[in-house]
Amino acid sequence: MIPPDALLYIYEIRGETAIELATPPRSFIGLWNEDDFAYLFFDKSEDDYVRKLVACSRSILGSRHEMRYKDWQSGLPEQGITLAGVHVVPPGAERTPHDAVVLDPSVVFGDGSHPTTASCLRALKRIVRTSSVHSMLDLGTGSGILAIAGVRMGIGHVLAVDKNRLAVSVAGKNVAANRMCSRIRTLEGEARWFVGGHFQLVAANLPFQVLTDLAVADGVDRHAFWIISGINEQQGRVLKELFAEQGFETIVHYDAHPWVTFALARRSGQ
Question: At what angle are helices 208-215 and 233-245 packed, to 10 degrees?
Answer without folding.
Answer: 10
